[in-house]
C-alpha cells in the first residue's frame, strides 16, 4: 500500500462530505477503501460523518476483510443515531455470519453485538445460536463474549433463547480460549444478575483447573478470578487446589501472579497444617518481590496489595525488608507505598537498618517524601518500644539540621512518642524549645504547645513560652487556639502563681467573648466553670492520666481487612476500599446509549460551565441565562456568620448548617425564577422532596432538579433514570448530588440528551422518572415534556421559505385547535415570549376582524413546525393551526403553546 | 474488563480512542489529562497509575512519551489492565517498528484493527503478535527511523548500534522488506538493570539485579530454539537469609538467582537437568525469562565524594568515579548527579584535561550538579572538582543537605550477574539454513546511589 494514513486527516477546504460521498460510490475498489479510511479518520477526530451512513454501508458487501472491518467500525459508531438505516446492514450481517470464512463469521457476530439497536438485536439471535456451535474456535470464542453483550442489552432474550445453557456448555469446550471467554462472559452476567447463574461447583472447578494450564495468560486471569470465589469443602481440597495453582506464580505476567496469590491466600484460610502454610508463604515471597522489578505502575499495584498481605501474614516478607528500600529513581507514589510497608515490616531485628534508610530519606529533596520519612521514624518509635530511644535520637539529629519542615514534622511525631511513653523522654524538651519560633504550621505549633502544657512543671520558663503565643491568639488557627487554651489551664493548675493567673484571664476572655468558634467557646466555658466552682475537680479532669496510644501502622479494621483480602488483585486492594464504595456501574440503557456516539468535538455542557461560570451571561443570554442563575444562588447563600454575641448564639450555629451552603459551586445552578414544580412530595418520598423541570439553556436541555431532605437521615448516592419516552430524553451524564444531611437541600442541572431510547406509539409528553439513593427505595414520578424546551435555536425561517414549506406540505398535515379561554392582550409580549422559547415570528396579517400571526419553530433533527395563530386581541379565543411533516406531534405541541399563551 | 482505551500525546491530544462498552461518558480523555496534568492530591505531585474520579477508574502507563490509558467502572484486576496497556504498546511497536505519535497517526487504521482483535467488549483476547497476524490485514506503513530523534536516551539499543545492523530493532515484525524478503535473524538480549546503594563509607548497603532475557525473532516458519544457560545456575536462596549476611563470595562460584519467571512459550522440560530452555519463539518482542538476583556482585563503578568547607560561604566538592571492569569494555552515556544545599548560588567546575565528551553543569532550578561523560574505558578513573558558593552559612551541615550522588550509565557487552547464554540452537530447516544470531549483553544503572 502506498501513502500514509495520516493524509486522511488532512481536510479539503470545502465540500468534504460531498467529495467523500462521491468517492464512496466510486466504481474502483481502492478508491472506496481510501474513502472509508478518510471517513474513519474524520470520525476519530470528532467530525460528524453520520450523513454518509448509506454510502458507507453500501461498501459493506465486499470480500475484502480490511474494508469490511472499517465499515463495521463505522457502523458501531453511528448505528445508534441512524437506527432505521442501520437495519439496511442486517442482511449483510446475517449473510456474513454464514460465510465460509470463519473470520467473517466471527466479525459479523462481534459487530452485531456492539450495535445496540433493538431492531438489529432481534436479528442477532439466530446467527449467535449458530456461532456458539461453530466448528471454528475463533468463532465460538467471539460468540461467547457476544452472549455477554446481548445480556447487557436484553437479559430476557438471553435467558429465553437458552444462551446461558450454551455458554455453560462452552465451559467444557476443547479450546481453552473458548473456555476462558465463556468464564468471562458468565462471570459478568452473574455480576449483574441477582439469581445464581454461574456457580463454581467442584465439577466445574476440575474442568477449569485443567483448562488453566493450556490457556493464554489472560484466560488464566479470567479463570483464576472466577475460581477465587470457590469455597473448598475441606483442607484437603484446598491443598489440592493450591497445588494446581502454585505453578502460576512462575508466570511472567504480573496479573497472573497476583491472581494466583489471591487464590492461594483464599485457600490458605482453610488449610490447617502449619507446615503447608509455612511452605506456601515461602513459595509466595519470591514472586511477590519480583513484582517490584516490573514497571513502576505495576509496582504500585503490587505494593498496595503487599500492604494488605503483610497485615494478615507478616511472616511472608519478614526477611525481605531490603527490597522495599526506596530507589532514588522510584516515582513518588512508589516511594510512599514502600515507606508504609517498611514501617509494617520494621522489627527489633532490622530497625537499625531501617532507621538508617529513613534518616537518609529525611534529607532528600521531595518535601512530601521527607515529611513522610520523619513521620515513619516516629511511628517506628511508637511501634517498637525497645527501639524508641534510637528513633528519638535520629529525630533529634534531624532537628539539628534545622530544615524548617523537618523540624515541624519531628515535633508532631515527638508529641505522639510522649503520649506513648509518658515520663520517659522529657529530657529532649529543651532541644525542642530551641525551634519554637520557627514553627509556622498549625499542627506543629499545636503539638509544641501541647508538650509545653503537659510538662509545664518541668519547663522552667513554660509561662514565658506560652505567653509568647498568647499575643497572636486571635489570629491563630482553631487547632492552635484549642491547644493554647488547654495548655494555659494546665499551666495554671500546675503553677497557680500570678503570671499564669493573668494569662488564664486573657485566654478565657479571648476564647469566650472574642471568638466565634463554638468548639473553642464551649471548651473555654467548661474550663471557666470548673475552675470557678472546684479547682480540685478541674485538676482531676484536666490533668488526668491519658490513655496510652498505640501503634497505628496496622490501622485497617479487621473486618475491612478481611474484605480487602478477599479482593486482592482487584481495584479494591489498590484503593483499600470495599468495592461498593467506588463501583458505580449503572445498569441503565440510558446511561450507556448517550455515550455510544463518537466524540463529536462539541464540549459537554459540564466541562465548560464549571470553568467559566460567567460565560453564560456573555454569550447571547436566553431569558434564563446562567448569569442570572448565579446571581440567584448568591442571594440564597447565607451571610457570613455574625460575630458571636457573649451568649452562645444558637442562630449563628444553625446558620453554619444552612442548607444552601451545600450547593456545589462548580455546578451549573438552577435558574432563578418561579420555583420548580414539586413532583415527588415529601409525604410520598419518606421525607425526600423532589421538584424538577426541563429547561433549555444555551441550546442545551437540562433537567433542573431540587432535592430537599426532610427525613431524619443523611441521603446520598443519588442516581436518576428516565423511562422510554417520545423524544428519547435521557441523562447525558451522571446525576451530581452531594450527600444531603437532614434538613439540607441541593439543586442541580442534569444535562439531557435526546433520542436515546425512544418509546414507540403516538407521541405524548409523558416523562417517567426514577430516582434512587442509597438509603431509600426507588422513587418514581411523572413529569411532562414541554415541547418548547426542545425547539432549537435555528428555527427561524425566511418568509419565502416559510411560504414554500407551507405550500409543499399536503393539507392532511395541517392540524388546528381552538383555545377558548385564552386572551392575547399584548401582541408584543406574546411574540417576545414565544421567541424566548425559540418560536420565531415570521409575519402578521389582518383577516376580517382577526389578527393572524405566523411563527416557525424547529424540533431536533430538523423537523420544522409552521404555526398560524388567529385571534382578536383582547378577546378570549385563539385558534392555532400548525403544519409540519410530523402532524402526529400536534397534540404535544398544543399542550406547549397553551402553556406559553396562558403564561 | 475495560470500557475505553485511548492513547494521548504528551500535550494531551487524542491519538487513538476506542470505546468498547459505552458505559463511561465521553470526554474522559480530556478529564483524565487535566487531572493528571494538575495532579495534587495527598501531597503527591505525580498521579498514581490507578485512580478513581467520579466513579470512573483510570489506569495509565507512560510508554515512549505517550500515555496509554484505560477506563472502567467495575472492580477489575488492576495489574491485568496495566500489564495489558504495556502489552498493547508492545504489539503496536512490533507492528509499526517504531512506537511514537507519528507512527501511530500514520497507521491509525491498522491500530484500530489491532485493537479490535486485542480487546472485545473490554475483555482481552490476545496480545500475541504471532496470533494477531492471522486476523489483522492492514499493512504497516513504516516510519523512517533514521529521521527520528531518539525517544528515550536510556533505550538500550542506542549504544549497541555500532555492532548491530542499525535498523534491526526498529524493524516491523510483519512488514515485508523493500526487497520483498526479510532477513532470517534472531536477537537475544540479556539486559540487566542494577541497583546499588553505597553507604557514606563506601560499603554496599543493598545491591540487586533485575534481569531479562529478551528475544525478538525474525525467523520464518517458527523453528524451535534451544537456549542454554550456565550449568551451575541455582534458583532460590537456601533458607532464610539474615539481613546482615553478606556473602563474600564475589568473583567465583555459582550464579544464584533469587527468583525467575518465564514466558508462556518456554518449555522447562530440561531446565532442571541441564539449564536449557526450549521454545518456539512467537513473532514479536517478548521476555523469555525474567530474573532477580541479590547475590553480591562487583559493582562496575565506585563513587568517591569529598566535601571540603572553604570558609563560611564556600565549599569544594570532589567527585571521583572509578570504572572497575575490564579495559576491553567501555561504558557510555554516563551521568552523575548530586543535589547541592538549597542555598547554593553558584558552582564552577574544573574538569580533568584530556578527557573528551565531558560536561559539567549546575542546575539552578533544582540545585543539582550534573556531570555527563560520554565514555569511560574499564579500569580508568575520572575526577570532577566543583567550587560552590553559598548565600548563607552552612552551619557544618553541607554533607547532610547535599547528596546522595546518583549515577546512570550503560555498559554494552557486559553483565554483572555472569549469567550467560552458552549457546543458541535453531532447529535446522535445511542444511544451509544458518540465520543470523545476535546475542547481546547490556548492563544499565537502575538506582545507582552513593550516600555521602
UniProtKB/TrEMBL annotation, chain A:
Pfam families for this protein: Adaptin_N, Alpha_adaptinC2, B2-adapt-app_C
Disordered as annotated region, ranges: 586-641
Primary location recorded for the protein, binned into one broad class: membrane
SUPFAM superfamilies given in the database record: ARM repeat (SSF48371), Clathrin adaptor appendage domain (SSF49348), Subdomain of clathrin and coatomer appendage domain (SSF55711)
InterPro entries from the UniProt entry: AP_beta (IPR026739), AP_complex_bsu_1_2_4 (IPR016342), ARM-like (IPR011989), ARM-type_fold (IPR016024), B-adaptin_app_sub_C (IPR015151), Clathrin/coatomer_adapt-like_N (IPR002553), Clathrin_a/b/g-adaptin_app_Ig (IPR008152), Clathrin_app_Ig-like_sf (IPR013041)
GO molecular function: clathrin binding
Positions of the Clathrin adaptor alpha/beta/gamma-adaptin appendage Ig-like subdomain domain: 672-782
One Gene Ontology biological process: intracellular protein transport
Subcellular location: Cytoplasmic vesicle, Clathrin-coated vesicle membrane; Golgi apparatus, trans-Golgi network
Membrane topology: Peripheral membrane protein
GO cellular component, one term: Golgi apparatus
Subunit text: Adaptor protein complexes are heterotetramers composed of two large adaptins (beta-type subunit and alpha-type or delta-type or epsilon-type or gamma-type subunit), a medium adaptin (mu-type subunit) and a small adaptin (sigma-type subunit).
Family from the record: Belongs to the adaptor complexes large subunit family.
Chain's role: Subunit of clathrin-associated adaptor protein complex that plays a role in protein sorting in the late-Golgi/trans-Golgi network (TGN) and/or endosomes. The AP complexes mediate both the recruitment of clathrin to membranes and the recognition of sorting signals within the cytosolic tails of transmembrane cargo molecules.
Protein name, entry field: Beta-adaptin-like protein
Organism, as annotated: Erythroxylum novogranatense
Automatic annotation (TrEMBL), chain B:
Keyword Protease: no
Pfam family, one: Clat_adaptor_s
Key words of the record: Membrane, Protein transport, Transport
Primary subcellular site in the record, as a coarse category: membrane
Family annotation (InterPro entries): Adaptor_comp_med_subunit, AP2_Mu_C_sf, AP_mu_sigma_su, Clathrin_mu, Longin-like_dom_sf, MHD
Family: Belongs to the adaptor complexes medium subunit family.
Segments forming domain MHD: 183-451
Protein name stated in the entry: MHD domain-containing protein
Subcellular locations according to the entry: Endomembrane system
GO biological process, alphabetically ordered: intracellular protein transport; vesicle-mediated transport
Entry GO terms, CC: clathrin adaptor complex; endomembrane system
Biological source species: Erythroxylum novogranatense
Amino acid at each position: 500500500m502506498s501513502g500514509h494514513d495520516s493524509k486522511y486527516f488532512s481536510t479539503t477546504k470545502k465540500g468534504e462530505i460531498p467529495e467523500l460521498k462521491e468517492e464512496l460510490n466510486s466504481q474502483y475498489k481502492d478508491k472506496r477503501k481510501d474513502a472509508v479510511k478518510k471517513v474513519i479518520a474524520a470520525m476519530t477526530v470528532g467530525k460528524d460523518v453520520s450523513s454518509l451512513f448509506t454510502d458507507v454501508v453500501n461498501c459493506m458487501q465486499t470480500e475484502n476483510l480490511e474494508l469490511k472491518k472499517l465499515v463495521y467500525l463505522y457502523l458501531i459508531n453511528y448505528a445508534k443515531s441512524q437506527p432505521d438505516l442501520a437495519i439496511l446492514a442486517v442482511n449483510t450481517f446475517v449473510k456474513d455470519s454464514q460465510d465460509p470464512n470463519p473470520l467473517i463469521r466471527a466479525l459479523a457476530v462481534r459487530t452485531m453485538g456492539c450495535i445496540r439497536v433493538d431492531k438489529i438485536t432481534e436479528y442477532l439471535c439466530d446467527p449467535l445460536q449458530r456461532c456458539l456451535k461453530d466448528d471454528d474456535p475463533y468463532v465460538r470464542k467471539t460468540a461467547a463474549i457476544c452472549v455477554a453483550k446481548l445480556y447487557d442489552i436484553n437479559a430476557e432474550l438471553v435467558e429465553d433463547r437458552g444462551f446461558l445453557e450454551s455458554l455453560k456448555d462452552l465451559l467444557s469446550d476443547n479450546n481453552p480460549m473458548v473456555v476462558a471467554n465463556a468464564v468471562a462472559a458468565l462471570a459478568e452476567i452473574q455480576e449483574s444478575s441477582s439469581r445464581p447463574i454461574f456457580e463454581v461447583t467442584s465439577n466445574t472447578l476440575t474442568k477449569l483447573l485443567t483448562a488453566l494450564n493450556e490457556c493464554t495468560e489472560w484466560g488464566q486471569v479470567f479463570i483464576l478470578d472466577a475460581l477465587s470465589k470457590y469455597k473448598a469443602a475441606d483442607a484437603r481440597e484446598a491443598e489440592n487446589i493450591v497445588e494446581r495453582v502454585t505453578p502460576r506464580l512462575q508466570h511472567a505476567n504480573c496479573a497472573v501472579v497476583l491472581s494466583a496469590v489471591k487464590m492461594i491466600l483464599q485457600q490458605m484460610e482453610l488449610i490447617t497444617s502449619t507446615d503447608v502454610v509455612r511452605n506456601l508463604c515461602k513459595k509466595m515471597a519470591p514472586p511477590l518481590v519480583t513484582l517490584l522489578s516490573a514497571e513502576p505502575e505495576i509496582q504500585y499495584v503490587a505494593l498496595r496489595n503487599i500492604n494488605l498481605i503483610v497485615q494478615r501474614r507478616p511472616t511472608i516478607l519478614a526477611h525481605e525488608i531490603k527490597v522495599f528500600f526506596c530507589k532514588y529513581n522510584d516515582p513518588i507514589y512508589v516511594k510512599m507505598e514502600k515507606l508504609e510497608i517498611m514501617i509494617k515490616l520494621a522489627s527489633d531485628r532490622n530497625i537499625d537498618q531501617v532507621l538508617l534508610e529513613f534518616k537518609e530519606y529525611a534529607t532528600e529533596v521531595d518535601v512530601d517524601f521527607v515529611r513522610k520519612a520523619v513521620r515513619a521514624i516516629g511511628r517506628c518509635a511508637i511501634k517498637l518500644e525497645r527501639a524508641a530511644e534510637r528513633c528519638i535520637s535520629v529525630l533529634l539529629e534531624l532537628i539539628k539540621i534545622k530544615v524548617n519542615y523537618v523540624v515541624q514534622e519531628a515535633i508532631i511525631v515527638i508529641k505522639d512518642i510522649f503520649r506513648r511513653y509518658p515520663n520517659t523522654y522529657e529530657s529532649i524538651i529543651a532541644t525542642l524549645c530551641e525551634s519554637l519560633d520557627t514553627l509556622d504550621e498549625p499542627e506543629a505549633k499545636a503539638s509544641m504547645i501541647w508538650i509545653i502544657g503537659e510538662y509545664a512543671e518541668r519547663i522552667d520558663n513554660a509561662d514565658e513560652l506560652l505567653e509568647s503565643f498568647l499575643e497572636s491568639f486571635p489570629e491563630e488557627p482553631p487547632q492552635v487556639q484549642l491547644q493554647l487554651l488547654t495548655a494555659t489551664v494546665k499551666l495554671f493548675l500546675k503553677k497557680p502563681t500570678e503570671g499564669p493567673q493573668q494569662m488564664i484571664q486573657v485566654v478565657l476572655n479571648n476564647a469566650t467573648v472574642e471568638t466565634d468558634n463554638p468548639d473553642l467557646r464551649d471548651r473555654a466555658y467548661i474550663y471557666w466553670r470548673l475552675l470557678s466552682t472546684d479547682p480540685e475537680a478541674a485538676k482531676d479532669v484536666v490533668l488526668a492520666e491519658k490513655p496510652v496510644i498505640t501503634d497505628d501502622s496496622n490501622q485497617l479494621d479487621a473486618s475491612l481487612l478481611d474484605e480487602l483480602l478477599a479482593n486482592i488483585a482487584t481495584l479494591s486492594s489498590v484503593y483499600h476500599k470495599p468495592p461498593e464504595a467506588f463501583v458505580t456501574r449503572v445498569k441503565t440503557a440510558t446511561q450507556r446509549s448517550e455515550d455510544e456516539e463518537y466524540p463529536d468535538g462539541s464540549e459537554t455542557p459540564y466541562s465548560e460551565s464549571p470553568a467559566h461560570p460567567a460565560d453564560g451571561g456573555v454569550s447571547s443570554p436566553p431569558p434564563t441565562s446562567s448569569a442570572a442563575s448565579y446571581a440567584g444562588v448568591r442571594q440564597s447563600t447565607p451571610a457570613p456568620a455574625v460575630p458571636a454575641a457573649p451568649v452562645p448564639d444558637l442562630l449563628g450555629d444553625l446558620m453554619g448548617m444552612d442548607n444552601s451552603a451545600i450547593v456545589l459551586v462548580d455546578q451549573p445552578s438552577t435558574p432563578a425564577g418561579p420555583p420548580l414544580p414539586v413532583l415527588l412530595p415529601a409525604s410520598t418520598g419518606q421525607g425526600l422532596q423532589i421538584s424538577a423541570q426541563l429547561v433549555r439553556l444555551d441550546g442545551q436541555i437540562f433537567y433542573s432538579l431540587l432535592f430537599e431532605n426532610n427525613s431524619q437521615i443523611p441521603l446520598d448516592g443519588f442516581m436518576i433514570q428516565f423511562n422510554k419516552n417520545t423524544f428519547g430524553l435521557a441523562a447525558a451524564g451522571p446525576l451530581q448530588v452531594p450527600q444531603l444531611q437532614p434538613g439540607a437541600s441541593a439543586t442541580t442541572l442534569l444535562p439531557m440528551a435526546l433520542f436515546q431510547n425512544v418509546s414507540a406509539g403516538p407521541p405524548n409528553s409523558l416523562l417517567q422518572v426514577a430516582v434512587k439513593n442509597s438509603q431509600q427505595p426507588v422513587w418514581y414520578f411523572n413529569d411532562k415534556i414541554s415541547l418548547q424546551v426542545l425547539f432549537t435555536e435555528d428555527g427561524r425561517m425566511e418568509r419565502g421559505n416559510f411560504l414554500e414549506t407551507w405550500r409543499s406540505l399536503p393539507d392532511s398535515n395541517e392540524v388546528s385547535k381552538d383555545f377558548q379561554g385564552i386572551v392575547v392582550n399584548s401582541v408584543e409580549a406574546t411574540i417576545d415570549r414565544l421567541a424566548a422559547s425559540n418560536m420565531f415570528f415570521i409575519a402578521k396579517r389582518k383577516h376580517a376582524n382577526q389578527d393572524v400571526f405566523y411563527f416557525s419553530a424547529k424540533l431536533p433533527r430538523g423537523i420544522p413546525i409552521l404555526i398560524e395563530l388567529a385571534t382578536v386581541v383582547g378577546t378570549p379565543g385563539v385558534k392555532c393551526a400548525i403544519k409540519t411533516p410530523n402532524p402526529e406531534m400536534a397534540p404535544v405541541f398544543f399542550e406547549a403553546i397553551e402553556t406559553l399563551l396562558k403564561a | 474488563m475495560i470500557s475505553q482505551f485511548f492513547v494521548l500525546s504528551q500535550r494531551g491530544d487524542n491519538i487513538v480512542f476506542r470505546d468498547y462498552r459505552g458505559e463511561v461518558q465521553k470526554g474522559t480523555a480530556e478529564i483524565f489529562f487535566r487531572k493528571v496534568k494538575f495532579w495534587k492530591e495527598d501531597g503527591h505531585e505525580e498521579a498514581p497509575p490507578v485512580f478513581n474520579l467520579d466513579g470512573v477508574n483510570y489506569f495509565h502507563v507512560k510508554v515512549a512519551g505517550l500515555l496509554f490509558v484505560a477506563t472502567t467502572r467495575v472492580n477489575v484486576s488492576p495489574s491485568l489492565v496495566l500489564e495489558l496497556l504495556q502489552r498493547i504498546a508492545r504489539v503496536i511497536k512490533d507492528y509499526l517498528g517504531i512506537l511514537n505519535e507519528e507512527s501511530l497517526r500514520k497507521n491509525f487504521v491498522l491500530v484500530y484493527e489491532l485493537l479490535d482483535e486485542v480487546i472485545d467488549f473490554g475483555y482481552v483476547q490476545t496480545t500475541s503478535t504471532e496470533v494477531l497476524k492471522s486476523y489483522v490485514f492492514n499493512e504497516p506503513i513504516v516510519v523512517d527511523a533514521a529521521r527520528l530523534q531518539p525517544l528515550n536516551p536510556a533505550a538500550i539499543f542506542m549504544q549497541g548500534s555500532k555492532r548491530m545492523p542499525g535498523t534491526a530493532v526498529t524493524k516491523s515484525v510483519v512488514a515485508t522488506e523493500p526487497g520483498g524478503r526479510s532477513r532470517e535473524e534472531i536477537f537475544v538480549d540479556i539486559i540487566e538493570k542494577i541497583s546499588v546503594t553505597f553507604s557514606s563509607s563506601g560499603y554496599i548497603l543493598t545491591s540487586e539485579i533485575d534481569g531479562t532475557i529478551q528475544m525478538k525473532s525474525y525467523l520464518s516458519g517458527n523453528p524451535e530454539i534451544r537456549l542454554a544457560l550456565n550449568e551451575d545456575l541455582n534458583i532460590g536462596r537456601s533458607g532464610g537469609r539474615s539481613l546482615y549476611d553478606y556473602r563474600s563470595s564475589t568473583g567465583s562460584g555459582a550464579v544464584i538467582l533469587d527468583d525467575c519467571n518465564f514466558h508462556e512459550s518456554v518449555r522447562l522440560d530440561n531446565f532442571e537437568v541441564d539449564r536449557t530452555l526450549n521454545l518456539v519463539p512467537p513473532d514479536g518482542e517478548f521476555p523469555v525469562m525474567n530474573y532477580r538476583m541479590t547475590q553480591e556482585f562487583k559493582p562496575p563503578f565506585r563513587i568517591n565524594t569529598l566535601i571540603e568547607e572553604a570558609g563560611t560561604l564556600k565549599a569544594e566538592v570532589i567527585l571521583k568515579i572509578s570504572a572497575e571492569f575490564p579495559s576491553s569494555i567501555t561504558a557510555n552515556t554516563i551521568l552523575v548527579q548530586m543535589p547541592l544545599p538549597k542555598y547554593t548560588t553558584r558552582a564552577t567546575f574544573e574538569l580533568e584535561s584530556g578527557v573528551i565528551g565531558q560536561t559539567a553543569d549546575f542546575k539552578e532550578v533544582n540545585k543539582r550538579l550534573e556531570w555527563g561523560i560520554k565514555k569511560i574505558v574499564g579500569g580508568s578513573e575520572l575526577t570532577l572538582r566543583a567550587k560552590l558558593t553559598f548565600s548563607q552559612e552552612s552551619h557544618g551541615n553541607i554533607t547532610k543537605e547535599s547528596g546522595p550522588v546518583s549515577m546512570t550509565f550503560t555498559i554494552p557487552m557486559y553483565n554483572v550477574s555472569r549469567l550467560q547464554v552458552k549457546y543458541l540452537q535453531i532447529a535446522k530447516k535445511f542444511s544451509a539454513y544458518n540465520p543470523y544470531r545476535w546475542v547481546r549483553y547490556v548492563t544499565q544503572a537502575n538506582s545507582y546511589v552513593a550516600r555521602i
